[in-house]
UniProtKB/TrEMBL annotation, chain A:
Gene3D superfamilies: MetI-like
Source species: Microvirga makkahensis
Protein family (similarity comment): Belongs to the binding-protein-dependent transport system permease family. CysTW subfamily.
Protein name: ABC transporter permease subunit
Membrane topology: Multi-pass membrane protein
Any one cellular-component term (Gene Ontology): plasma membrane
Alphabetical GO biological process terms: transmembrane transport
Compartments in which it is found: Cell membrane
From TrEMBL, chain B:
InterPro entries on file: MetI-like, MetI-like_sf
Protein's membrane topology: Multi-pass membrane protein
Pfam family, one: BPD_transp_1
Protein name per Swiss-Prot or TrEMBL: ABC transporter permease subunit
Main location: membrane
Organismal lineage: Bacteria, Pseudomonadati, Pseudomonadota, Alphaproteobacteria, Hyphomicrobiales
GO cellular component terms given for this protein: plasma membrane
Amino acid sequence: MTPRPSTFAVPWLLAGPGALFFVGLVLLPLALTVILSFHAYDYSTGIQNTFTLSHYVAVVTDGYYLEIFARTLRIAALTTLICAAIGVPEAYILSRMRDPWRSIFLLVIIGPLLVSVVVRTFGWSMLLGSQGLVNQALQLLGFPPVRILYTETAIVVALVHVMLPFMVIPVWTALQKLDPMVEAAAWTLGASHFTALRRVVMPQATLGMLSGSLIVFGLSASAFAVPALLGGRRLKMAATLVYDEYLQELNWPLGATIAIIVLAANLCIMLAYNRMVEARARRTLG
Amino acid sequence: MHKNGPVALIFHILVLTFVLAPLVIICLVAFTPENTLSLPTAGLSLRWFEAVFAHPDFVASFWNSIWLATLSATLAVVFAVPAGLAISRYTFPGRDFLNALFLSPLIIPHLVLGVAFLRLFALIGATGSFAWLVATHIIIVTPYVLRLVLAALSGLDRSAEQAARTLGAGEWTTFRRVTAPMILPGITGGWLLAFINSFDELTMSIFVTSPATVTLPVRMYMYATESIDPMMAAVSALMIAITAVAMLVLDRAFGLDRILVGQR
C-alpha cells in the first residue's frame, strides 16, 4: 500500500506537537551549546559576553587534552576490535544452535544491555580490585597480584562487557538472513569448512560487524560511567573530561567545546561508515 | 543444521562466563553478612538489603526513578504514536526531516545531550525541576517507542482498516477500534523499553538532576565514588532483579531479540 498522496495538514497536525518539543529540546540546546563554546571564560568572573576561538585552539594544541583524546580513541578502537573478535564468532555459534538453547543464550548475551551501566561497572570494580576474584585466581595459580583497577585494561574490559550486545545483535541479525543450506551447498560442491566459512558466512557477517563496530566505537568514545568509576582520577576520557570541566572546574565554554568536538567526531565517523557499509553492501550483494 | 564443535562450545562457555561474571558477583556479595565487599562464606544475610530500605536517599531516588520512567515512557508514547502514523502513512514535505529529528537522540551521545540541556535550563532558569527532568527523558526514550510503532505500522495489513472505512467508520473510530489494537504490541513493547532506558539512564541525567531530583543510577554513581560497601551491591542486585523481571515480560510478550534488534 503506497502512502496517501501528498497532503500537508494532517501529518503535521499529528507530528507537530512532538516536532515542536524536539526542536525546542534537541536542536535549540545543541545550538546554544555551540554558541557557548565560543564564549570567552574568565576563572574569576565566569562566562564572558565576548566571542573567541581560544577554547578550540586550546583543545587542539594543549598536550593535556590531546593525550585525553588519544586515550579515548585508543580505548574505543581497542574495545571495538575485541568486541568484534568475541562478538562475531559468538553470534555465529548462537546462530548454529537449536531452540530452545538459541533463544536462552541469546537472551543471556544481550539481556545485560538492559541492566544499568552503573551496576555492571560496579560488578567489574569488584572483580578487578586488588582483592577481587581475578587477583585471587591469579594468586591461586601462583602469579603475583596485578593492579588492574584504575588502568586502561580495566576500562577496556568493562567497556567490552557493556558493548558486546551491540556487536552480537547486528551480526546475529545479518546471519539470520543467511540460509544455512547455502553453507551446506558449498560443502557439497567440495568447499572445505574453512572455505565455506570464509566465502559464504564471512561476507554476510561482515555487514553486521561493520554496523556493530560503528555503534560500539561511537558509544565507547563517549562512554562516561566506565572511565569515571574504573579509571580513577587521572585516567580521563573525553566524557569524564567534559564532566570535570562542567561540574568541577565550572569552565562551561571549554566543556561545551569538548562536547561539540565529541559530537562532530561521532557524526563524521557515522557518515563515513554509513557510506562504506552501503558501498560494501552494494558490492557484495549486487 | 550443523552442530557446534568442542572448540566452539568452549568459546561459548567462556563468553557466557565473561558476560555473567560481574552480575553474578554482585548478587552473591549483596548477601554477605560482612562489613566489606566480600563473598558470603559464613552464611547469608539480608542486612544490606535492610540497609538500602532504611537509607532515605536511596528510597527517595528509587521512587523518583520509578515516577520519572513511568511518566517519560507514557508521554513518549503520546508523542510517538501520532508521529509514527504521520511518518508511515503520509508523504509530505518535511517527512524525512521529522523522522531524523525524532530518531536523532539515538546518535547524539547522551553526554552531549546532558550538557546541552544544562545550558538551556541555566538560561531559562529551569534547573532542578522534576518536570524538566521528565522532558529530557522523553527526548531520550521517544526514539525507542517510535521505532517499534513504525515497525508495527509497516507490518500491518491495511485491508482491515479499509473494511472498517467501507463499513462507515470514521477516521478516529477506525484508529481506535482497528489500528490501535493491532499496533498495541508495538506500543507496549516500546513503552517497556522506554521505561527501562529511562530507569537506567546515567550520563545525561547526571547533568540535569538537582539534589531534590537525583535518580537511582545517579545516586548509585555518587555513592560509588565516595564509599564502597556491600549496600552498593544490594542496590545493584535489586536493579538487576527489576530489570530481569521487565526483560522476561518483554521476552515472553514480544521476543527480546526482535525488540532489541537495531537498538543502540
